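The material for today's practical consists of a large collection of protein records. An example says more than a description, so a record of this kind follows:
***
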Amino acid sequence: MLIPYLTSRFPWILFFLAALLLADLVIFLDSGIPAELASVVYFNMLLVALFALFLIWRFLRETRLLREVRRLSGEPLGDWEDLLPSGAPGLDGLLTDQLVEISRAHRRELAAVKEAQMLEADYTASWVHEVKTPLTAMKLILDEHRKEPAMRALSAEWLRLHLLIDRQLYMSRMPSLASDFLPETAGVRSLVAPEVRELAAWCMEKDLAVEIEGEDAQIRTDVKWARFVVRQILTNAVKYSPAGGQIRIGTGRDEDGHAFIRIEDEGPGIPAHDLPRIFEKGFTGGAGRIHNAATGLGLYLADTVGSRIGIAFGILSEEGGGTAVFLRFARENEFDEILKS
């Protein structure tokens, strides 16, 4: 802190040295001022010492506010205004008052933005709940006439609409995921089987075969949010699988004791240059552009939720060779650490 201060006060030091040099020249050039060399040297040393003491005093006084602000770096941000030194003199006082005013204005703006976001989220959640009522009625009508070919096609389209609205509902809940978190013990198959049944109409429309194999490993997680993650991966597999293809789902434990779910499809695959970006928000990649049905949200949401509930992802894919997505669940002790954090 001292070096930056001396650098900022370099004009002071330069002016002092110039004034001292001018005084010495006047003493030596003016014959009317009797002075011995020793006296002039003593006079110079005295002035330099006094100026050094002056700089130290100004340094301690002018950096007081900076030291106080640095001390606040470890304090909660919400309290920093109250911890600023009160009654600071001169420019420090003006600077403190200005900082407090700017902070309060920023907080007012931030509060207004948060209120607007909460209103929008509440409206979205309310709208989704309202839309579910006619969707439920439509589902009952479709089930009554499921034998008609046209109704089977409508069931698949209804399912797509239902999935989009359901995803929007989860998106509106994501900011409050911590308060909506309910850990429980379940088998990995209990996450997969209901989602396969949910997508049955879509699979039948595309004549897709779904095969589930492996052991039903027990995990500790939030079942509702874990199913949401599985749904995003499985939806992608159905969306990009060719008609008449197969989706293979494997479950079990890896060599490290982590439960896993593996979802493999026979889709177009993912080019190697797209793999590092597939979890980015809004990224659709080449396959998404070809199908013109991608939003770039499914994998982003799965990764966002997965990181909060202890699900890690692995992707194996090559262009034209299908895609395998691995979901690895945290062990129980690791899951407890996630809850504590």
Q: What stands out?
A: The longest strand covers residues 246-253.
